[in-house]
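User: Fold this, then the next.

Assistant: Folding the first:
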Amino acid sequence: MLRKIMNYMIGFIMLFLVCGIIAQYYISQPTEPEELICHKGRLLARVGDDGTVYTKVKEFTCDYQKGMLIIEEEK
């Protein structure tokens, strides 16, 4: 009886550890920064390929509506 309980406990612990390792793997994956972002109505473009440095794009404004980036030209 004790052996059966230990087998279930060890199986549960192993399953828990495997799920934790898989979750940690997917959480720690690096995310690629977006090329264009909208911040406070201003359109920002990424500078270079190596980081998260952005510059303001003149003459354009932006807005998010229903998950889409709307870019408009200022007049």
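Now the next one, as you asked:
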Amino acid sequence: MTDRFGALTVVLDGAIREDDAEYIMDAIGMIKGVVEVRPVVADPTAYWAKATALRELKEKLWDVLKGDQ
């Protein structure tokens, strides 16, 4: 049996202005089956989490490349 989805999440590659996002949201809203398109406001916590995760990955990769496992 095939899974059924109740929602799809779209993640942008960076924060964009509200007026620029309006066209994207309108386009997504025109897709058959879309009931609602709701923006999520970017906040400093999201940037911090991304930067922290990226730093940790770089450190782990560097350790592997150096051979300090």
